[in-house]
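Possible regression after last week's pipeline update?

I re-ran a chain I had predicted before the update to compare outputs. Posting the input and the new output here so someone can diff against the archived version. Not blocking, just want to make sure nothing changed silently.
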Amino acid sequence: MAERFVHARGLQCPGPIVELFKTVKASDAGDIITIEVTDCGFKKDIAAWCKKTGNELVNLEENDGIIKAAIKKVL
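New output (post-update):
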C-alpha cells in the first residue's frame, strides 16, 4: 500500500477531480490518495465521485479554507 498526495489548491471544478482521477488511475488497490483543494464545491463532488467510482472516502475535513480528503482506491 502506497500513500500519494495531490496538490490541487487553486484549481476550480473540475480540476481537482481530474487531478485525483489521474492519480487514482496510476495507483494500486489499497493505496491512499490525499488531496488538498480550495474549491468549496469539492466537498460535495468528492463524496459523489467516490460513490460513483467505488472508491472509499476515508476522511474529509476543512481547515482555514483548505479541504483535505483521503481516498482509498478499492478497485
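Follow-up from reviewer: compared with the archived run. The radius of gyration is 11 Å. Marking as no regression found.
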